[in-house]
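S1.2 Input.
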Amino acid sequence: MSEAGARGAMSAPRPGSASPKGRRRRGSPTSVGAWPLAFIGLLMLGVAVFYYWPIVKNIIISFQQTNAFGGDPEFVGVDNYKALFADPSLMSSIGNTLLYTVIVLLGIPLSVAIASMIELPGLRWKSLYRTLFFMPYLAMPMAIGQVWKIVYNGNFGILNQVLRALGVSDPPYWIVTPGFAIVAVSIFGLWSSIGFNVIILSSGLKGISRELYEAASIDGATGVKQFRWITVPLLTPSIFFLTIMTTIGGFQLFDVLFAMIGNGNPAESRTRSLVTLFYKQAFVNSDQGTGAAIAIVILVFVAIVTVIQFIGQKKWVNYV
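S1.3 Output.
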């Protein structure tokens, strides 16, 4: 045997013995199997601390009565829930929240039409159009709400100026008139949601193969039929996503309502949403127990509506 062959034979692992790499994999705490668990564990710890613990704490507070000046909370059972459901403000807040959510949901079909026109083949400056529609979504809702207060102003607002030019002699003072105020806020919510909707729907439209449209054209399908039988069915996953997000956002209505209606407005009690009712009870009246009960009601409402939407999506959403 040569000298090189003798060194190779001495360095080769013996039968039945583990290789150096194999010994590191079994013995090292930083093996491949430990790192994913470490990352997932940290993430789950953060979710538990910042999401699930506040929910649990809120449930506990909803069964307690706290003093406005501090002190030990008193366990009162379901008294907070009894007082809440006996208050007529709860039903009016639910009605206002549902009305706002339904009106904002009407922006999704409008967004589908806008996104389809932007993504038409051969259209120039598509990026510019997407940017123009998305820009309002980047602005602060409180700031845009102040601008829309000027638009809705009964004396010099642009909306009433247009209505007077069209022959309407006595247009309403939109955001101070009960019955009109929540509709005015809802129209603003519909307008502000279109930018986000268009971006999501444009991404969905890009995922639809052009070959389908070419095949439909060969078969004689017009643009309207292509939109009805190709675009809309294949866009349903994006539409379903927007439906979920818009519904959850509608149930969380607060900032825009606070900016446009505020305190001291004669229409304030007729436009109150569930979240503004929570704010009034928890922070204005310092009734944290009832406020926590309202938060639980909102959580249950959102959970029920979301579950219903997920069950119903099996009948109309097409996952290709």
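S1.4 Remarks. Strands lie at 64-65, 74-75.
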